[in-house]
Structures are given as C-alpha cells and as structure tokens.
C-alpha cells in the first residue's frame, strides 16, 4: 500500500486536506508500526518518491504562510495536516540516517522560520507545537547534517554554508546563532511554565526532550556555551514552577529529566543537595512497581547520573 498511497500524495496539493491528512498519517504509522526490515524498505520507498517530498516541503511551508492562526483550543483540518507533515518529515530524517538510505529529492527549510514558529507561537494548537518541536529535536540530533534536509537562509535563499556567522560563538554553533539559542531556550522554558497550568503531558515531554537535545548539541559544539545555557538562573524559577504541583511532585518525569540535565552539566546554582535528597526520599517512599513507565525511566536516569 505504500506505493499507491505515496504516489497519491504526490499528486495532491497542500489544500487537499481531506485526502492528504489521513494519507500522511498512514505513511507515518507505516514507518513506526512495522518490523526493522520492513521499516528500512518503507523508508526507501518514501525517500525515492520525488513528488511526495516536494509535496511535503509545500505542506511544511504552509505553517508560516497562513495569515490567520486558528484558535488555540481547536485543531482545524489544515492544522492537522501540518502536524502530520512535520511528524512524517521528522521520522524520515531519523530513519534516513539510521539506514543510510539514498535520497532522490531534498527538502529545503528556513531555519529562522522553524525557530520563529516556536518562539512566536501565537495561537498555534498544542499538537502543532508538539510536531514542530519534535522536528526541531530530530534536526538537532542530526547536528543539522542530513542528505534529506537543506537549511536555507530566508534572506539569501541559499544553502546553510552561505549563512555568515557574526561572532566566534556563532561560528562554533553554526547554523544557529547565540541570540537564536537564547530565544529558543526561553521559549521552551515559557512553554513548560504554560504547560504546568494546562497539564499537557504530550507537550511537556516534547519540550523537555528538545531542551535536552539542544543542550547536548551545544555541548558538542562549544562546552562553555552549553554550561552557560544550562546554568541560567531562570532554570531555577522553572523548577520552582514545575514543583508547585502538590504531593510527590519531585517524581514528575519532566522534573526528573530536567534535574538530570542540570546534574550532568554541573549546574549547582540550579539544583542543590536539598533537592537531590528530596527526590531520593520520595523515591524510597514510593511504590516503584506502580510508577508510570515515563517516571520509572526518568528516575533510573536521574539515579545513574547521581
């Protein structure tokens, strides 16, 4: 079914939402709900379809071409299509690298527009934000290096190699700039604060994972910058906000993952011995067998880091 469905997608236009959205969902789940052997073949089928990849680029570009954002609480058919497109391209990025699959058509995206979609999120629905954050995380995991993706500059519309760093730090973090890093970090922090009020687990998991990947990316590129970002005092306020969740709030998976991140980068001004002791105390009092899987995994990583 991958052949006819992917070919059908390639013949559509981005406004054909009723047909495209379920079709892209089918392609997405075909990648994820299959055996490794079949997965490799599925990736090869999709990456060999030039019309499909061209269509996906047009779909993603609709994210910032839309003049009037939808209401935050609702998910329109156009927004649902954007979600499917971002998630599918993010998956193709990771699997193309995993299997070293040949690419017949690249997808060009403006990095500034992608970052602005998160930084200036306006009234974007939660699921659309989750999808874009997932894509950004996939790009960071690949260090902006992929035979499928080409990063372009909105001013020159040329390849990433033409982006001119303005400082030694920018050169080290290329194609990101320091101002973009700090804007992105603050935006992710603000999203987590907002999530604490909305109790949206899906978005909190995506944001924390992206923050982890961003700091790891910075650490590889420039350790001083990574440690500087990880030790920002605003992180302390973020933890206080997340911990304002009542009893045993230290065992929230997003709190554990953030504290693990700060421990890894020795941010003693963010997490103290008191917080570490509190987590250990709550862990000894909890019924570990009844903890959710996400919490158990996060607690395991935290203890290993300690």
UniProtKB/TrEMBL annotation:
Task: Determine the domain of life of the protein's source.
Answer: Eukaryota
Question: What are the BP-aspect GO terms?
Answer: meiosis I
Q: What is the protein named? A: MEI1 protein
Source species of the chain: Chloroceryle aenea (American pygmy kingfisher)
């Amino acid at each position: 079914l991958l052949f006819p469905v992917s070919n059908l997608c390639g013949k559509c236009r981005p406004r054909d939402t009723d047909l495209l959205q379920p079709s892209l969902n089918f392609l997405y789940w075909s990648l994820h709900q299959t055996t490794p052997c079949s997965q490799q073949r599925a990736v090869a089928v999709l990456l060999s379809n030039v019309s499909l990849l061209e269509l996906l680029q047009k779909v993603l570009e609709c994210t910032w071409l839309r003049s009037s954002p939808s209401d935050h609480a609702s998910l329109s058919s156009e927004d649902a299509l954007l979600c499917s497109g971002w998630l599918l391209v993010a998956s193709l990025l990771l699997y193309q690298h995993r299997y070293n699959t040949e690419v017949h058509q690249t997808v060009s995206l403006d990095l500034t527009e992608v970052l602005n979609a998160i930084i200036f999120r306006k009234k974007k629905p939660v699921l659309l934000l989750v999808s874009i954050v997932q894509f950004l995380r996939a790009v960071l995991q690949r260090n902006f290096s992929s035979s499928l993706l080409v990063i372009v500059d909105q001013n020159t519309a040329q390849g990433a190699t033409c982006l001119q760093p303005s400082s030694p730090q920018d050169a080290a973090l290329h194609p990101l700039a320091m101002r973009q890093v700090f804007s992105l970090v603050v935006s992710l922090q603000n999203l987590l604060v907002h999530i604490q009020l909305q109790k949206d687990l899906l978005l909190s998991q995506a944001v924390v994972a992206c923050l982890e990947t961003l700091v790891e990316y910075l650490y590889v590129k420039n350790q001083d910058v990574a440690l500087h970002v990880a030790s920002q005092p605003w992180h302390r306020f973020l933890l206080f906000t997340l911990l304002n969740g009542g009893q045993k709030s230290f065992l929230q998976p997003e709190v554990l993952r953030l504290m693990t991140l700060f421990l890894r980068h020795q941010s003693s001004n963010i997490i103290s011995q008191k917080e570490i002791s509190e987590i250990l105390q709550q862990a000894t009092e909890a019924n570990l067998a009844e903890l959710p899987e996400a919490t158990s995994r996060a607690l395991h990583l935290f203890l290993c880091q300690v």
